[in-house]
Amino acid sequence: MSLALLRWGVFILLCLFAPQAVAGDAKPRRSEAKGSRLVRLKNGQLLHADAADAYRRMKAEARSKNIYLWVHSGYRSPAKQRRLYERYRKGKGPQAARPGRSNHQRGLAVDLVIGGVKTPTYDWLVSNACRFGFKRTVRSEPWHWEYRPRSTREPKPGRDCVGRPLKRQRPQSPPVASTEKS
Ligand SMILES: [Zn+2]
Question: Mean pLDDT throughout 113-129?
Answer without folding.
Answer: 97
